[in-house]
Specification:
138 residues, mainly alpha, 5 helices, 78% helix, 0% strand
Length: 138
Amino acid sequence: MNDIFARIWENLYARLTGPMNLRFIIQPTVATILAIRAGLRDAHQNRPAFLWAVLWNPARRRELLRQGWKDVGKVFLLATILDVVYQLIVHKGVYILELLITAVTLAIVPYVLLRGPISRVAKMVFAARPPMKQPPIQ
């Protein structure tokens, strides 16, 4: 069993310097941009922080998870496809656990960790600035 965990760790670490390593910058960046958009949308609609609401509001959990998946699902799918390609090139096979760890780490973790704090910061900024006056209609 220790051999399996050692191989997984070694293979995951090798992805950082192996072929296609630019995806470790691009995919979390895209997930971050999506989290910023969703967090600003949450702030404008005065919704609670995403992760907090998912964990503690069972009535809205399904809706929130569906919306989160809609936002980050394509990035997750791309991370999965690229890791399959990487594994086929390097290992000549596919290791599912490593695939899931990599895809979740690159796509879902940044989104989930950033959406709530961005929403909170945006709410503070929106509350601190004075409302904009509409120009008079002539």
